[in-house]
Design brief:
This protein is an alpha/beta fold. It folds into 2 domains: 164 residues, Bordetella uptake gene, domain 1 (D-Maltodextrin-Binding Protein, domain 2, 3-Layer(aba) Sandwich); 98 residues, D-Maltodextrin-Binding Protein, domain 2 (3-Layer(aba) Sandwich), CATH 3.40.190.10. It contains 12 helices and 11 strands. A 6-stranded mixed β-sheet has the order 2-1-3-10-4-11, with helices on both faces. It has a 5-stranded mixed β-sheet with strand order 7-6-8-5-9. Helix 2 links the parallel strand 1 and strand 2. The protein is globular, with a radius of gyration of 22 Å.
């Protein structure tokens, strides 16, 4: 046998071994790296998924919490991990926009990760303190234009979905509002309830109890459909701003070179898990809206569209990378 023939034979054997391994995937526990600390809604979602996914895969799904740097710590870790299908990333829209918001994110969410599955979205509501004379989006825009630069809005921090949602709203509605960033969603909404800041975007889980108590008024939903838990609130798109579609999203991605068979198996089993009615109800209770099943390719297209959209918003809002 010549050296060339031997080399070809070795390559074929290696390829067949890799193919067989992928077909038998998974053969050991899968690690799901989560970019948040234990206990929050994102962590709860990851654990609900892991508990139901493990029996379908026939292997344990281990949650590895790696919080820090707005999700960048977890993303960097997974980007450098072996692309064997045994380390995957719980991916948020924050990770997808990280390169536009950071001077050195340390990874490229589009070029260094393979899309696996979209899990859920989290619609938000534009809410105001009841003292603000606005019953709908048109009223709010009229009031803001009559008081340029005088209205402030609260967010959980710079670069959060709530911040970017309001910056996008400012751009399409042509209003001038002043940003007041807080260190988290709880203190932000508390100051809106107290009337110290008149407006913010907030999830229904956070804003809902205050809305029911008459301490906040919802003007519009941020998604392309009405909020599943506040069906009586029209979308912002319905109220004269078509195309306004802002929903933080959550998905699973994997390192480059992860075998296609592993990606396909994970996508299939995750979509099967997410179709469970009981799980859908659990997601709604913690503030997540289920989404229709998407293939890895469809999720990848969605991620690219989101990255382009939010990079444009960040650039036009002149949000400086940190």
């Amino acid at each position: 046998m010549t050296r060339t023939t031997a080399a070809i034979a070795i390559a074929i054997i290696a390829a067949l071994a890799g193919y067989a391994s992928a077909q038998n995937y998974p053969l050991r526990p899968v690690h799901l790296v989560v970019p948040n600390a234990p206990g929050g809604a994102t962590d709860i979602l990851s654990r609900l998924l892991a508990d139901r996914l493990a029996p379908r895969l026939g292997q344990q799904v281990v949650i590895d919490n790696k919080p820090g740097a707005g999700g960048n710590v977890a993303a960097r870790f997974v980007a450098k991990a072996s692309g064997d299908g045994y380390t995957v990333l719980f991916t948020t829209r924050g990770i997808a926009t990280a390169p536009a918001l950071s001077k050195d994110a340390g990874f490229d969410p589009i070029k260094e990760f393979l899309p696996v599955a979209l899990l859920a979205v989290q619609g938000m509501l534009l809410v105001v303190h009841p003292s603000l004379p606005a019953a709908n989006v048109a009223d709010f825009v009229a009031y803001a234009r009559a008081h340029p630069g005088q209205l402030t809005y609260a967010t959980p921090g710079i670069g959060t979905p709530h911040h970017l949602a309001m910056e996008m709203f400012k751009q399409i509605a042509r209003v001038n509002l002043t940003h007041v960033p807080y260190k988290g969603g709880a203190p932000a909404v508390q100051d809106v309830v107290a009337g110290r800041v008149p407006v913010m975007f907030a999830s229904y889980v956070i804003a809902g109890p205050y809305m029911k108590a008459g301490k906040l008024r919802a003007l519009g939903a941020s998604g392309d459909a009405r909020n599943s838990q506040a069906q009586d609130i029209p979308t912002i798109s319905e109220q004269g701003y078509p195309g306004f579609d802002v929903e933080p999203w959550f998905g699973i991605t994997a390192p480059l070179e992860t075998p296609p068979a592993a990606i396909a198996r994970l996508n299939q089993e995750i979509n099967t898990v997410l179709a469970n009615t009981e799980l859908k109800q659990q997601l709604l209770k913690i503030g997540f809206d289920p989404v229709p099943a998407r293939t890895p390719a469809e999720f990848g297209n969605f991620m690219r569209t989101e990255a382009v959209k939010w990079s444009k918003v960040i650039r036009e809002a002149n949000i400086t990378p940190e």
